[in-house]
Structure formats: C-alpha cells, structure tokens
C-alpha cells in the first residue's frame, strides 16, 4: 500500500524516539529450554498429588527396610524342657548353632513336668528320647528356626555318638557327605533375595516411566489444548519447548528415584542391615545408570503421544502401546531367565530392567552393560529426532487425535 | 507508560506523513493521532493451501506503524490462517511477510504480542506465575516480568487475584489475562485474533486505551473481528477478507471513496420528477424524499438545478457504513 518511510526503524529491539515508555528490552533468550525446564519442575514440585505420592512411597520404602531390619535383628530366647542329660547336651549344641544373639536354654525336669511346661507355654518345646528316637513336643506349633536348629543339632549329636561308637571322629564320618555347589553361569543365586531385588528394580522403573511419562504427555497436551503452544512457539523455537519439557521431567524422575534409593540406604544404614544388602549395591548402582538412560530414551515417546492427542481421553488409548512395552519390560525383569533375559538386556527401555538384573545375578560380562547403554543411547537419539518431527507438526493440529504416520504426513 | 493525548511526542515528524492523520470523520470522536515512528508490518501475496484447498490466496496488505488495522471477514474467510502465518505458527505456501521492509525473522516475531484465536493459558497455574514465565520466554528477567504483570493486572482490576489459578477466573477475566500476556513484554507489533470477543463494553474501552498507548510507541496493531461496528469505531484502516482473498483494503475514507456515492434529496414538493433527470439512478423514493446515485457531475448539476425549482430543502452525501461496504464487497 505504501513504501517504507525513512524514519521507520530497522532493528527490532531499538528504542524508538518518542516512545512513551519502557527502556529497551534485551530480548535475547540464551537458553529457552532452561526456562521451560524450570517451569516444569516448579509446577510439579508444587503439585499436591505429586508431593503426597512421593511421601507415601518414601514411607513405604523406609517402612519396608525397617521391617526387614526388625525381622533380622529380632533376638529369640528359646526355652526347651527335657528329661535327660543327653537332652540338655543336645540343647546346648543347638544353642551354639543359633545365629546372632538368639539363645536357647535347657530345663531338665521329669517328662511329665516337661509336658506340663509346654502345655503352660512356659517352655517353647520339650525334647526326649523314646524307643531310640528323639521326639520334639510342642504345644500347637513349632517355630521354624527352632525346628531347623534342633534337627541340625540332633544330627550332629547322633553322628558324634555313632562315630564314637565306631571309634572314628565325626569329621571322618561326615567326609564326602556334603554337596559342593557349582553354577554353570558362575553366579550365586541368592534365591528369594534376588527375586525381591528384581521385583524392586522392575517396579521402580515401570512406575517412574508411567507416572512421569504421563506427566510429560499431559503437560504437552495441556499446552496444545489451551493453545498456549501457539504463544510459546512465537517466542521460542518449538524444539526448545520439547527439550525443556523432557529434560525437566527426566530430572524430576531421577531426583525421585535418587530420593527413594537414598532414603532406603540411609534407613538401612541406621538400622544396621547394610551388610545384608552389600551384594546388591553394585547392581543397584548400575540400575540407576540404566534408569537414567532408559527413562530418557522413552521420554520423547510420551511427549509425542501428548502432541498427537486432542483430548485427555485420547491419551488413555494412545498410550496403550508404550505401557504394554513397559509392562513387558517389567515382566522380563521379574521372570525372564537364560537367553530370554540376555536378549532382553539389550533391547532399549527393557534393558533398563533386564541388564541390572543380569548383573545382580552375576551373569553379565564387564563390557555388556556398556554395549546395552550405547544401544539405548542410540535409540533415544533416534526417538528425539523422530519425535521432534512429529511433535512440531502435531502440536498445532487441533480437532482430532492423530497417529504417528498421519502426523508425519502433515505439512507444518 | 503514559498516554499521550496528542499522540505526537517530541521528536516525531507527523506532518510529513499526512496519510497518518486521522480522517475527518474520526476527529470528532477521539483525540488520538497515530505517531509517525515505529515499525511496519506487511504481507505480500501470502498464500496457504491445505491439500487442494486454498485457504489464503495471495493476500497483501500493510499494517502501518502506530495504526490499528481491522481484519474483517466471515468465519472461514482465512483471517486466522493469515495471522498464524504472520506469526510463523503455520508454514507459508507462497508469498512473504515483511518487517520494516525486510523478510521477517523469528527474532522479530519473538518481540510481537500475539493472541491466538482459541484462548487459554495454563488453567492450573496461578496467573502471576504464568505471566512471569511468558515474560521470561520473551527475554525479560523474571522480576521485571512479574512487576509488569502486576501492573497490568492491577489495571485490569485483577490486582487481588494474582495468586489465583487461571481456571478460577470468569471468562472475561481470563480474556484480560490473555491480553496482559500479549502486552507484557512491550511488544513491537500486536497481532490479535478476536481480542474483544467476550469483553463487555467497558472492558473493550479500557483495552482500547491500553492498545493506544502501545500504538503511541509506533506499534502496528492488527486485529480480527466479526464486530463491524467495533472495527468501524476503532480502526484507522481495515482489510476485508473473503474466501481467502482480500476484497478491499485501506482507510475507512479510502474504502468509502471507492464505493459508488449515494445521496439523499429532500424538497418541499413531491420529487417524482427525479426519475426523468439523465444520469440519476433512483434507489428509493417516497413523497418529498429520494435516495439516489449520480453518474457524473453533469447529472449532479442537472439534478440540483431542477431541485431548486422544486423547493430544495436538503441534499446530502450518504456515507456508506462499514457494514454496508462489507455486505457490498462480499456479496
């Protein structure tokens, strides 16, 4: 309509002569992602639901460690009634076998008195010999530890007596009568304890991935639904928004897992049970490293899912696939054995559970976790590149929910 | 920031730019005269296609520094698509956006104030907090952003609600926060999609005052609206868009001048005779009054000579209202 007037200024940030207000603003934002990241974190840590769930989980973790410590440190005093010197001797042998501060005392009385003591619950059990057999008499139930110890003691005692009768030492009698345990994989399966650790790794990863993943998706969707993203996109490159969001939630997830681990270890330390978990510490350290990589690798996926949805209802359906992958990862971590576990330990995301589990069981070579981490890193990089493309297109498309393919076909 | 009633602060040279002086029809209703300095925003042959459909078709217009340009058109005319392309939210199929005569850069846009069509900031965040965040993203430090946000909210009578979540505010108040978000960073240009929808007349006035303060700094303002009377009242110039094409653009006077003129004639006697005057087209005739248009000055002379003989009482130009122009060009 008209040409550029000579007094029209060329540079955006300059003060204009005659401007009635405001000094010039230096509009350069050096790290926009950092501002986005800070907001993500601040909003979340002020969220009551987030604070409550974190505190609740902390209480559960501390409670579990304390319960374990209590069970481990609990001292038991067994009182055993018996009617013979042999019985008293046997109880002393058993007492020496007890772990920790547990004690066992014998009370030598007549058999009837012994029965009465058990009936009155003044003795935990009575032992006597009848027709050459040893009998344990208990009221209605026998403590497992007591049963095991007495059985081991009676074995020891009888063997010693038999050896003496045969004129040899108990060691000679026992020679070759024990299994030496060897492992094909060179590991040492701690059975139940390992299983618990696998379960803990798997659950922690799954929970964090889903909870923070959903937080990322919702945060993206909130901006899309309310069109804030259009305002933000005019202020900063949209990619920076994605980075800030993902990094912010990664930091929150890491901080939370570090808080849980820290609280667990501190409680274990104070309760004096660290020694019992020492073997798991290395694997737990690796778990945290794998958690960081695995979580970061899948975070972009959640951001993209948020951008593809148009309402929060859409998130329930379009997050099914990633949730299933995480569930598969969790079960692989808890249940998989042998080659299945070995394969799982290289699959990105799933490796975050499977590789620490293999290390926990001592199955992995030194180089293996590094390779798995590299694979995970490559996958994460690819997802960020692809995710950026989808996100930039989908986040401005209102109206309907999209698939990855549809979004990639969109013109920006 | 203070209002400058004359609108021409010292150091400006408004007289050199007569095109910017308020047209005569506006002078009575307001004292505002736009400044001559500032930035100019221009679109040239802007085109956007979605598949086979051309949503915006070679649209060109200019938003002059310190002036308010109304963007009018029916739903689906392409106003929002054009504004989104100007803001860089939507890719441009063809054409260009110029900022002070140069192709626009992202850094230029970062200094704009923008209000998208569908509203909403963060519903679950407190209003002061989110304004602070938006200011930071526009290059302000947080303290400045919060201070400016407080000042604007105070002005919108929201000073006591700064710690409230956005979703607890009424829609009108949410709209005010949205406006504050667009103005917070002393924008260099304002692109506002339906900024007045949902505001009561008093709120519209107070917002217009605020916009004028920014226009005094030389800020070009483009706003879209369905409310023709509002555009008529507020805008220095307007762009009428229909089916993706610019049908008319210019100041209200320019638009009026480009339309065929209509006149009203009133005499003391019956005016039935006007039908016989050459070059006169009668649109409406009732007893002593007629609405008509004239082909040329010769027709005017012929008409007036005869009118004097019939007891001429009144002969006036009928300026078309904006609504009439709009209806006519979009017909």
Distinctive features:
heterodimer, A: 412 residues, mainly alpha, D-Maltodextrin-Binding Protein, domain 2, 2 domains, four-stranded mixed sheet, 16 helices, 4 strands, elongated, disordered N terminus, B: 331 residues, alpha/beta, six-stranded mixed sheet, 11 helices, 32% helix, 26% strand
Entry summary:
Chain A is 67% helix and 6% strand. With 412 residues, chain A is mainly alpha-helical.
Would you kindly provide a written description of the structure presented here, covering whatever features stand out?
Chain A: It comes from Kocuria coralli. Chain A: Residues 1-25 are annotated as: Disordered. Chain A: InterPro entries: ABC-2_transporter_component (IPR051449), ABC2_TM (IPR013525). The complex is a heterodimer of chains A (412) and B (331). With 412 residues, chain A is mainly alpha-helical. Chain A folds into two domains: 32-67 and 187-408, no CATH class; 77-168, D-Maltodextrin-Binding Protein, domain 2. Helix content of chain A is 67%, strand content 6%. Chain A has 16 helices and four strands. Chain A has helices spanning 32-45, 48-73, 85-97, 111-119, 144-166, 170-174, 192-225, 228-235, 238-271, 274-308, 312-318, 320-335, 338-344, 351-360, 368-394, 404-409; strands spanning 77-82, 103-108, 125-130, 133-137. Chain A has a four-stranded mixed β-sheet, with helices on both faces. The longest helix of chain A has 35 residues, at 274-308. Chain A is elongated. By secondary structure, chain B is an alpha/beta fold. Chain B has helices at residues 24-27, 79-86, 106-110, 127-137, 142-155, 171-183, 201-216, 228-234, 252-258, 297-309, 322-330; strands at 41-50, 53-63, 68-72, 94-99, 102-103, 112-115, 189-193, 221-225, 237-242, 245-251, 262-267, 280-286, 289-294, 312-318. In chain B, the strands form three sheets. Chain B has a six-stranded mixed β-sheet with strand order 6-7-8-3-9-10, sandwiched between helices. Chain B starts with 23 loop residues before the first helix and ends with a helix. At the A-B interface, helix 1, helix 7 and helix 8 of A face helix 3 and helix 4 of B.
């Amino acid at each position: 309509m008209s040409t550029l007037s000579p007094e029209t200024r060329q540079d955006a940030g300059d003060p204009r002569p005659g401007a009635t207000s405001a000094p010039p603003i230096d509009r350069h934002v050096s790290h926009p992602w950092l501002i986005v990241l800070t907001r993500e974190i601040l909003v979340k840590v002020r969220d009551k639901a987030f604070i409550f769930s974190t505190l609740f989980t902390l209480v559960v973790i501390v409670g579990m460690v304390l319960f374990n410590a209590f069970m481990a440190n609990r001292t038991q005093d067994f009182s055993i009634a018996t009617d013979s010197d042999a019985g008293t001797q046997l109880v002393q042998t058993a007492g020496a076998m007890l772990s920790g501060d547990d004690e066992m005392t014998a009370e030598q009385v007549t058999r009837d008195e012994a029965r009465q003591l058990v009936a009155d619950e003044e003795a935990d059990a009575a032992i006597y010999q009848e027709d050459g057999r040893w009998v344990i008499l208990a009221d209605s139930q026998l403590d497992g530890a007591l049963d095991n110890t007495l059985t081991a003691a009676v074995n020891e005692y009888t063997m010693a007596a038999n050896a003496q009768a045969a004129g040899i030492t108990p060691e000679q009698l026992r020679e070759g009568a024990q299994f030496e345990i060897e492992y094909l994989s060179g590991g040492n399966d701690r059975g139940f304890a390992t299983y618990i650790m696998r379960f803990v790794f798997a659950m922690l990863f799954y929970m964090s991935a889903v909870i923070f993943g959903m937080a990322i998706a919702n945060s993206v969707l909130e901006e899309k639904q309310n069109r804030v993203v259009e305002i933000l996109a005019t202020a900063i490159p949209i990619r920076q928004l994605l980075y800030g969001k993902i990094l912010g939630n990664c930091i929150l997830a890491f901080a939370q897992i570090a808080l849980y681990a820290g609280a667990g270890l501190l409680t274990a330390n104070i309760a004096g049970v660290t020694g019992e978990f020492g073997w798991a510490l290395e694997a737990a350290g690796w778990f945290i490293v794998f958690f960081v990589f695995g979580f970061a690798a899948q975070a972009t996926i959640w951001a993209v899912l948020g951008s593809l949805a148009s309402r929060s209802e859409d998130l329930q359906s379009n997050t099914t696939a990633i949730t299933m992958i995480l569930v598969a990862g969790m079960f692989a971590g808890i249940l998989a054995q042998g080659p299945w576990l070995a394969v799982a330990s290289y699959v990105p995301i799933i490796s975050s559970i499977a590789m620490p589990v293999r290390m926990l069981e001592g199955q992995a070579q030194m180089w293996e976790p590094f390779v798995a981490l590299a694979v995970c890193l490559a996958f994460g990089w690819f997802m960020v590149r692809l995710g950026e493309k989808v996100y930039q297109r989908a986040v401005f498309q209102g109206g309907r929910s999209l698939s990855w393919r549809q979004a990639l076909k969109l013109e920006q | 920031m203070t209002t400058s009633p004359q609108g021409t602060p010292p150091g400006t040279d408004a007289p050199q730019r007569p095109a910017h002086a308020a047209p005569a029809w506006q002078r009575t209703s307001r004292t505002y005269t736009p400044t001559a300095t500032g930035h100019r925003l221009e679109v040239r042959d802007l085109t956007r296609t979605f598949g086979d459909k051309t949503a915006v078709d070679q649209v060109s217009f200019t938003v002059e520094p310190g002036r308010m340009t109304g963007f009018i058109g029916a739903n689906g005319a392409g106003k929002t698509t054009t504004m989104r392309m100007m803001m860089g939210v939507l890719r441009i199929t063809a054409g260009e956006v110029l900022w002070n005569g140069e192709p626009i850069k992202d850094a230029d846009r970062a200094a704009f104030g923008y209000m998208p069509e569908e509203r909403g900031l963060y519903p679950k965040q407190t209003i002061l907090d989110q304004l602070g965040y938006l200011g930071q993203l526009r290059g302000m430090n947080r303290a400045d952003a919060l201070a400016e946000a407080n000042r604007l909210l105070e002005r919108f009578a929201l000073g006591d609600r700064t710690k409230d979540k956005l979703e607890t505010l009424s829609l009108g108040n949410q709209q005010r926060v949205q406006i504050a978000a667009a103005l917070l960073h002393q924008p260099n240009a304002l692109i506002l999609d339906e900024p007045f929808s949902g505001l009561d007349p008093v709120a519209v006035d107070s917002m217009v005052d605020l916009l004028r303060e920014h226009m005094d700094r030389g800020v070009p303002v483009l706003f879209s609206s369905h409310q023709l009377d509002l555009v008529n009242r507020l805008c220095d110039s307007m762009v009428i868009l229909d089916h993706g094409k610019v049908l008319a653009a210019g100041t209200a006077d320019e638009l009026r001048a480009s339309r065929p003129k209509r006149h009203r004639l009133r005499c003391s006697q019956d005016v039935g005779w006007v039908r016989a005057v050459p070059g006169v087209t009668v649109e409406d005739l009732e007893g002593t009054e007629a609405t008509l248009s004239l082909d040329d000055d010769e027709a005017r002379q012929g008409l007036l000579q005869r009118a004097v003989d019939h007891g001429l009482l009144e002969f006036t130009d009928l300026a078309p209202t904006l609504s009439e122009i709009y209806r006519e060009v979009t017909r």
